[in-house]
Amino acid sequence: MGLVEAWGGNAFGWFFANIIESFYNFGYAVTHPSEWLAWLPYINATMPTPEIKESLMRFIYYGASRELFFVLFTIFLIVTIIGLFHNGFMWACVRRLEGFANKVGRFFAWAGLFMVLQQIMIIFLQRVFAVSEISLGFGLKFSQDVSWWSEELKLYNALIVCLCATYTFVQGGHVRVDLIYSVVSYRTKRIIDMVGSMLFMIPAALLTWLYGWFFLWRNLVVPNPSASDALDRLINKARALRWNIETIGFSPNGFNAYFLFKILLVTFVIMVVLQAIAFFYRSYLELKEGPASEGRFLDKDALGDPTAERAAQIH
Questions:
Q1: Model pTM?
Q2: Is residue 27 assigned to a domain?
Q3: Structural contact between residues 237 and 225, judged by C-beta atoms closer than 8 angstroms
Q4: Which of 25, 30, 207, 310 has the largest count of CB atoms under 10 Å?
């Protein structure tokens, strides 16, 4: 649309021009999906035409672009404004976002059990039967060296860290050092929570995204995209674009799917941003409605042990 160039002489003009243009950018992206999603049927396969290669480069570019940020920021503003006038709608957003974090976290928390069972299996087969290779049964033809399975345990740990972090946050399970927070009033706590979610959680997550997004794609395609590349430069690079998925392990027969860790990193950032929004909304609603609304609709796990429940409340 050109508003950013026309109004970009000062910070306020640049900011509001980007918000106005975000409506156009969102509409254009929705009505022209082939320009940035045509590569999906060719994941890890030869991309037959230049147009398909260019669509992947657009996806990479816009995935960490100013345009995407302002589209998401405008959506956040619209949802927030609606919620300010209809608190029931904002509570529904809180329940959905916290419910999503809980469901994902509760599911992937089982990775801890699989990690323990797999470690026991590796020790038992390697020490007792001197097995050098482990194969999956049930009709699956998948065999790997014991060292591959040993290093693959890191993936279970990464699943827990990246996909259960927001679940732990909802449950109040993160360790926190309260020098001021624990002794201030109820309203001050809610204000601290609101400010913290907007000034600490989201900026830290966005900074991680900017690094993690290109870190991911540099291990998936060549020529390597760079955060400093303009769209035109990336489109020019698309002529030689091909998949080059990282399959190098740290040891000769070790785990070789480290690109999964990069995918988990950007997934973690998405979940943190969503939880920061949910926490901001919850803090605002609890501030507005008073102490009676504290913990409203909060789906916390029941530990079944009074002592453990008390310890969880303290932390």
A1: 0.91
A2: yes
A3: yes
A4: 25
